[in-house]
Amino acid sequence: MIIVVERAAAKDIIGISEPFKNQIKKKIAGLQNYPNLTNIKKLKNYSPTHRLRVGNYRVLFDVEDDKIIIGRIKHRKEAY
User: Fold this and answer.
1) Run of H or E residues at 21
2) The pLDDT of residue 1
3) What's 58's domain CATH number?
């Protein structure tokens, strides 16, 4: 799978502290194994359509054919 990070998600990760940032990057790289991952949930009535839980952060993404498009990376209080 190809992973595409949108501009908004790239900006979101800049403001995250280094230990969480590294953890998030590892989980995003692991999305290549989608759908064989835990901590992924399909969202109802929400765009992006999926979320990956990484501690207190949520990686919000869409799946299109062989692409995963990372839309936002937000703290769980701000994600939805």
Assistant:
1) helix 18-30
2) 86
3) 3.30.2310.20
